C-alpha cells in the first residue's frame, strides 16, 4: 500500500512541479531593465537622448479594464490628426518603441508609446501574449479618441507580442485603426509554445504541454489556444503590413506567411534578409522604412 501512496505522491509532485514551472515561464518571462534597453538603444544610435527629451510629450496614465494603470507618453510635435500607437514586445518596454516612433514622427505623425502590463512603469502581474494586452490596447486607443476626437487617422505598429496584440485587437475587438504594421508575430500561441519546447527540451512536448496550458488557465484565467491571431484575420478589413526576418528562429517567418495568406483585402508582406527575432528594423533600416513608405500609400 505504501508503494501506491509513494507512486501517487510522485505523480502529483510531477504534475504540480511541471505545471508551475511551465506556467511561470510563460507568465513571468524575465524582463529587461530599462537602463539596459536605454543603453543598448543609445549605443546603437537608435536613441538620441537629447532629441527625445526635447520632444513635446504628455504623461498619461490610462486605466486598464483589468484593474491597473498603463503608463503612456503622448508625443505631439505636429499639428495633425495623424497618430500612431507603438506596441512593444515581451521583455521590452516603451523605450524600445522610440526607434519605431521616430519613423512616423519623420512622416508627420504624432505618436503614443506605452508600457504593456507587467512591463516598464505599468501595473499588472502577468504577461498573456496578447490575451489581456488587446483590451489594454483598446483602452489606449479609446483614450486617444477621447482626448483628440474621433476624426483621427490612426495606425498601430507592434513588435513580436505587440504585433500579436494589435492583430487580436483588430480581429477580435474592433478594426479600430486605419492601418496596422505587424512585425514578427506568431500565428497561434500553442504552436509557438510547442516550437520553443522542441528547441529547449529533449523529449516530446506532449509530455509537458497539456499540464502547462492547464496551469495557465488555472492561474491566469485563459486557455493558450485563445491567443490565435490566425483565427481572426478574416475580421480585419483595414490594411496590414506584415514584417518578419527570414532567419528568425524564435518565431518562424512561416507564421507571418500564414497570417498574410489569411488576411483578405489590402495587405503587404516584407521578409527581411538580415536579422534574428525582432531585428528586422535594426538590421535593415532603409529597406524597413522604404516598405513603410510603400505601405502608407495604401492608406
Automatic annotation (TrEMBL):
Keywords: Hydrolase, Membrane, Transmembrane, Transmembrane helix. Signal peptide: none annotated. One of its GO terms (molecular function) is hydrolase activity. The chain crosses the membrane at residues 6-23. It comes from the Bacteria. It holds the Pfam family Hydrolase_4. Residues 81-192 form the Serine aminopeptidase S33 domain. PANTHER family: ALPHA/BETA-HYDROLASE, EXPORTED PROTEIN. This is Alpha/beta hydrolase. It comes from Peribacillus simplex. The lineage of its organism: Bacteria, Bacillati, Bacillota, Bacilli, Bacillales.
Amino acid at each position: 500500500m505504501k508503494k501506491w501512496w509513494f507512486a501517487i505522491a510522485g505523480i502529483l509532485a510531477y504534475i504540480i512541479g511541471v505545471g508551475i514551472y511551465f506556467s511561470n515561464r510563460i507568465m513571468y518571462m524575465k524582463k529587461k531593465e530599462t537602463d539596459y534597453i536605454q543603453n543598448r538603444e543609445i549605443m546603437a544610435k537608435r536613441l538620441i537622448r537629447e532629441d527625445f527629451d526635447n520632444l513635446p510629450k504628455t504623461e498619461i496614465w490610462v486605466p486598464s479594464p483589468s484593474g491597473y494603470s498603463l503608463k503612456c507618453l503622448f508625443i505631439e510635435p505636429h499639428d495633425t490628426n495623424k497618430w500612431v500607437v507603438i506596441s512593444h514586445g515581451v521583455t521590452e518596454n516603451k523605450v524600445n518603441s522610440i526607434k519605431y516612433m521616430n519613423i512616423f514622427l519623420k512622416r508627420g505623425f504624432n505618436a503614443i508609446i506605452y508600457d504593456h502590463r507587467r512591463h516598464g512603469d505599468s501595473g499588472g502581474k502577468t504577461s498573456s501574449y496578447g490575451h489581456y494586452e488587446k483590451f489594454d490596447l483598446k483602452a489606449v486607443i479609446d483614450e486617444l479618441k477621447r482626448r483628440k476626437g474621433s476624426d483621427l487617422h490612426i495606425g498601430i505598429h507592434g513588435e513580436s507580442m505587440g504585433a500579436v496584440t494589435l492583430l487580436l485587437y483588430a480581429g477580435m475587438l474592433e478594426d479600430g485603426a486605419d492601418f496596422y504594421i505587424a512585425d514578427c508575430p506568431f500565428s497561434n500561441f500553442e504552436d509557438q509554445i510547442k516550437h520553443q519546447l522542441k528547441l529547449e527540451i529533449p523529449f516530446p512536448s506532449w509530455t509537458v504541454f497539456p499540464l502547462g496550458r492547464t496551469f495557465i488557465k488555472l492561474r491566469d484565467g485563459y486557455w493558450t489556444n485563445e491567443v490565435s491571431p490566425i483565427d481572426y484575420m478574416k475580421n480585419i478589413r483595414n490594411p496590414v503590413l506584415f514584417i518578419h526576418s527570414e532567419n528568425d528562429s524564435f518565431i518562424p517567418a512561416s507564421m507571418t506567411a500564414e497570417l498574410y495568406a489569411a488576411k483578405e483585402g489590402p495587405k503587404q508582406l516584407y521578409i527581411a534578409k538580415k536579422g534574428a527575432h525582432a531585428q528586422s528594423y535594426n538590421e535593415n533600416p532603409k529597406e524597413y522604412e522604404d516598405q513603410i513608405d510603400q505601405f502608407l500609400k495604401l492608406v
